[in-house]
Design brief:
elongated; five-stranded parallel sheet; four-stranded antiparallel sheet; alpha/beta; 8 helices; Dna Ligase, domain 1; 11 strands; Rossmann fold; 2 domains
């Protein structure tokens, strides 16, 4: 069912690893919605963007990107759809937080494009690992940890070097590579502090392997572009 009003979460301040491509994507989304007759409601804490310019979105809120503030906007605007994937890591995290807080269910707002559970599986390192295993994809030996003590125990089993991957971060933020125990302590501490859920994946290093990267776009009708 086509939505009549959609809330778009912006990415906030432009930082390294979360840059202007989200501003461009959000701007194009607002224009596309207008062509389709869908009202766009944009919330962003950064006024120095194209998407917050006059004439892009139908309604613009320059407000802090917090669950409390967005809940108030949802209550006021009553959108029937949420587009969380154009706000970078900020938008993804807020969409999950809004779902956990019961805001989306309370006001009957559905996540468009990417379901909330899919965001969870993609962002939670352990859930993503299990999904790969379930579909038969080989993955390096790894384990999720939530403390430095656990990180040391897992590394003793896997062996150095290891890759540190924090959950719910973008562009490698908080991640690292450890070849010594001193580097492990430093990288794991940073990763745990960076992850919003204080979780990191410690992964067997495959440094030196040949890397082949595929980017796939797929829609609800199973049309794919590789």
């Amino acid at each position: 069912m086509k939505p009549s009003k959609v809330l778009i979460i912006g990415s906030g301040p432009i930082i390294i690893g979360q840059a202007a491509e989200f501003d461009y994507a959000g701007t194009q989304a607002c224009k596309a919605m207008r062509e389709e007759g869908v009202t766009s409601v944009l919330v962003n804490s950064n006024p120095a963007t194209i998407m917050t310019d006059e004439g892009i979105a139908d309604v613009v809120y320059i407000e802090p990107l917090t669950v409390e503030m967005i809940a108030r906007i949802v209550e006021r605007e009553r959108p029937d759809g949420l587009l969380p994937t154009l706000g970078g890591q900020t938008g993804l995290n807020l969409a999950v937080d809004l779902a956990d807080a019961g805001v989306l269910d309370k006001y009957n707002v559905r996540s468009l494009g990417t379901p909330i559970q899919t965001i969870r599986m993609a962002e939670d390192r352990e859930l993503f690992k299990q999904m790969m295993i379930n579909i038969g994809e080989p993955v390096p030996e790894s384990a999720t940890v939530t403390s430095l003590e656990e990180a040391r125990k897992v590394t003793k089993k896997i062996g150095l070097p290891v890759v540190i991957r924090p959950a719910y971060t973008l562009g490698g933020t908080g991640g690292g590579f450890a070849t010594t125990w001193e580097e492990l302590d430093k990288a794991a501490t940073l990763g745990l502090a960076t992850s919003p859920i204080h979780q990191v994946l410690l992964e067997e290093s495959v440094a030196g392997w040949k890397e082949i990267e595929y980017e796939v776009m797929r829609d609800g009708a199973d049309n794919c572009i590789v």
